[in-house]
Amino acid sequence: MTEVNAILVTGSNGQLGQSFKKIAKDYNNYDIIFATRGELDLSDNNSISNYFQQNSFDLIINCAAHTAVDKAESESELADTINHLAVEQLAEIAKQQQAKLIHISTDYVFNGQQYRPYIETDDVAPQGVYGLTKLKGEQAVLRIMENNALILRTSWVYSEFGNNFVKTMLRLANDRDSLNVIFDQVGTPTYATDLAQAIMTIVQNEAFQQNFSSELVHYSNEGVCSWYDFAKTIFELSGITCDVSPIETKDYPTPATRPHYSLLNKAKIKQRYDLTIPYWKDSLQHCLSVLQENSE
Ligand SMILES: NC(=O)c1ccc[n+]([C@@H]2O[C@H](COP(=O)([O-])OP(=O)(O)OC[C@H]3O[C@@H](n4cnc5c(N)ncnc54)[C@H](OP(=O)(O)O)[C@@H]3O)[C@@H](O)[C@H]2O)c1
Prior knowledge:
By secondary structure, this protein is of the alpha/beta class. It has one domain (6-162, 189-223, 262-278): NAD(P)-binding Rossmann-like Domain (Rossmann fold, 3-Layer(aba) Sandwich), CATH 3.40.50.720. It is 40% helix and 17% strand. It has helices at 15-23, 45-54, 76-96, 129-144, 165-175, 192-204, 206-209, 227-238, 267-273, 280-295; strands at 6-10, 31-35, 59-62, 100-106, 149-154, 157-158, 178-182, 186-187, 190-191, 215-218, 225-226, 243-247. The strands form four sheets. Strands 2-1-3-4-5-10 form a six-stranded parallel beta sheet, with helices on both faces. A two-stranded parallel ribbon has the order 6-9. A two-stranded parallel sheet has the order 7-12. Strand 4, helix 4 and strand 5 form a beta-alpha-beta unit. Helix 1 (15-23) crosses helix 6, helix 2 (45-54) packs parallel to helix 3 (76-96) and helix 3 runs parallel beside helix 4. The site of NADP nicotinamide-adenine-dinucleotide phosphate (NAP) has 25 residues, from helix 1 and strand 4.
């Protein structure tokens, strides 16, 4: 059994990476190291091997990914390198260094044609390059690490950092009185701070401290909405007047096909790690307050 002390967070300038940075002060019993793309470039296998020749950890939390879902359609090789081959290499290294691995994956591994929240064992059928490369990353981890790897699928991540739906809606409402937003894709938003907190709760859990069989778990905030409802709620909670009209996916064509139904069943993660998950509107309110404070 390895007691977790030294933790590496990759992709530290991303939404989840920065959310870990934000909460790290509450976990100063751990030695948390943050690696940016400049320090650890997952598109370059030499960068990865060099980095781990010089550094070793008890736990790697992989938040880095090629997350540009539409761009991935025309950058499939790069997306595969980062989301699949680099993850394979990280898993090999983690196994060799006897480190644990928490790897973040996505609801986009599913085709979204189901009508009940996805459980971890449901059939996967990604609709685009991003989902496919993330799935291959998951499969590589499970193939290489029989033990001590946790793959956490999440959905619709937003935060006060980087680019995301919440910040896009707020920006667009500055210039426009009305917006069209898709109402036939439903899922659950996930506030990146809640996800980072949940992961640290898991890390502290006794079950995680032991050797455990590698597995998949699902995490998002609680509740359900469409992108349309999400946009309406962002404006309501921010006191912004902007007319939002519901449109269908077919009226907003994008290079990548997205799942219509993205709900994740979180029973497993809640039960195993004794987690309480915040309701999405409460977390959205929290994020909007942080954004408001930051703009003052
Ligand atoms: N965003 C979502 O809606 C969503 C939904 C489901 C699952 N996820 C998963 O959740 C995880 C975290 O997502 P996020 O929202 O925090 O994504 P994000 O904000 O796009 O951050 C991704 C990070 O990965 C880094 N990165 C990209 N290419 C890299 C490379 N070649 N080497 C090293 N780092 C690289 C980026 O670096 P730079 O800062 O330098 O660009 C960025 O810091 C990812 O695994 C993602 O697939 C996200």
